[in-house]
Amino acid sequence: MSVRAGSAARPNPQQPVGTPASVPVRQPRKAAFASFLGSLVEYYDFFIYGSAAALIFPTVFFPSESPATGTLAALATFGVGYIARPIGAVALGHYGDRIGRKRVLVFTLVLMGVSTFLIGCLPGFGSIGVAAPILLVVLRLMQGASAAGEQSGANSLTLEHSPEGSRAFYTSFTMSGTQAGQLIATLVFIPVAALPEGMLMTWGWRIPFLVSGILTIVALFVRRTMEETPVFREAERDNELVEIPVVELFKNYRLQMLRVIACSLFAVSGTIMTVFALAYGTGEAGLERQTLLWAGVIANIMQLFAIPLWAMLGDRIGRRPVYLAGIVGAIAAFFFYFEAMSIGSVPLIFAVSALFGAAASGVSGVGPTFFAEMFDTRVRFSGIAISTQIGFAFAGFAPSIGYALLGTGTHGWIPVAAFGSVCLLVAGLSAVTAPETGSVAITDLGKK
User: Fold this and answer.
1) Residue 432 CB-density burial (10 A; 0-12 exposed, 13-18 middle, 19+ buried)
2) In this structure, are residues 146 and 112 in contact, taking their beta carbons and an 8 Å threshold?
3) Which of the two ends of the chain, N or C, has the fewest CB atoms closer than 10 A to its terminal CB?
C-alpha cells in the first residue's frame, strides 16, 4: 500500500534509530526544567522558613523576656526540619528506587506545598499558647521530610535523562532551582520585612507562606507530565531492582555513603551565611534587615548564573577540581563576610556576598552529579537521599551551633567562621578521595 508524501509518521528525534516506541527515551531539557521548577518551589518554601525563623518567629511563636533565648529557640526549629530529613530520605529513597523517581517527586512537591501553606495559617503563641510552637514544629518536620526526597530525586531524574558528556550541566539545574527558590523567597520577604512592626507580626509574615500554594500548583502541573527515566525502566524491565535498597547500600556502598555524608557538610556554609548571618547581623551587628536581605539576593543571583557555568567546566575537566575550588572560595568568604558585618561596611557586605555566591556555585554546579555518579541505578535515589540528608542534618543546626559559639565584642564571630571552615575542610578532603566519574558511561556508574 502506498503512503502519500508527508503522511508518514515522523520519528522522535530523541529516540535512537531502531529503538522500539515503547522504550522510554531521554528528555534532558524537560527533565532539567521539571527539576528546576520543583526545586524552586521546594526551596522557596524551605527558605522562607529560615528568614521567618530569624526575623519573625522569636516574637510570634517564642516570646521571651530574653530576645536571645527566643532567637535561639526559633533557630532550633529551623534545625528540626533537618532531623526529619534522614528519616524521610530512607522512606522516600526506598520508593524512589522501587516504584520510580517521578511518582515520589510528585509526592514530595505536594507535601512541601501543603505544610508551608499551613504554616502561614497558624495562630501565634498569643492566641493558642504552647500549641502554636508545637504545631509549627510538626509542620517543619513535614517540610524536612519532603526536602529529603526532592533534591536527591530530582538529581537522579535529571542525571538519568542527561546525554553523556553533559550530565553535570543538565543535572545542575536542580541546584539552580534551589537558588532561584531562595532568591524568590528573599525578594518576597524584603517588602514584607519593611512593613510596620504591628502589621508584620500579625498578618504580613504570612504572605510568603500562602503564596507558596500558587507556585506548587504550577510546578506540579509540569512535573506530572515528566516521563520516568530510561535507565530505571530498563532496570525494572530486567528485574534488576532490589527489594530493600537501604540494605544493598549498607552492604556494598558504605564507602560511597561516607564520602557523600562528609561532602554534604558543605551545606553548613549555606545555613551560616543565610540564617545565622541574618540573626547575627540584625542583632549583635546592628544592621538593617533590608541590607542583609539584599545581600542574600546578590549571592543568589550570582549562583543562579554561575552554577551552570561551573557545571559545564565540570563536564570538561572533571568534578573534583571544580568542587575543591568552591570549597576554598567559600572558606575565604566566611571571614570576609563576618568582618564586613562587624565593621558595618555595606559595600563590603555586598561584595563578599557576590564572592560567596560565585565560590559556592562551584560546589553546587558539580555536587549533584558528583554524588549521584557514586551509585548505580538500583540504589541511586536512596544513596543520594540518605547520605546527603545525614550531612545536611548537621547543617540544619549550624545556625544554633553558631549562636552558641558566638563570642563577645567586635570579633565574636571568629569561632563561628572557624567552625564553618572546619566543616568545609572535611568536605573538601572527602572529595579528594573520590574517583572521577565524568567519562564513565551512565550504565557503568557505581558498578561493583
Assistant:
1) exposed
2) yes
3) N
Instruction: Check if the beta carbon of residue 260 is closer than 8 Å to that of residue 267.
Output: no
| CA distances in angstroms from 178 to 155, 185, 267, 309, 409, listed in the order given | 12, 11, 13, 16, 35
- Cα separations (Å) of 205 from 44, 124, 197? 14, 11, 10
**In terms of Cα–Cα distance, which of 302, 304, 322 is closest to 370?**
322
Using an 8 Å Cβ cutoff, are 217 and 335 in contact? no
User: Cα-flanking dihedrals φ and ψ of residue 19, to 5°?
Assistant: -85, 130
Is the pLDDT at 131 greater than 60? The verdict is yes
Percent share of the chain, pLDDT over 70? 94
pTM listed for this prediction: 0.80
**CA dihedral sign, ordered 258, 263, 265, 267:** negative
What gap in Å lies between CA 323 and CA 20, rounded to an integer? 39
Give Cα separations from 53 to 77, 180, 307, 335, 443 (angstroms). 8, 20, 27, 24, 43
pLDDT tens digits, one per residue of 325-383? 999 999 998 899 989 988 989 999 999 999 999 999 999 999 999 999 999 999 999 99
Cell of 231: 535507565
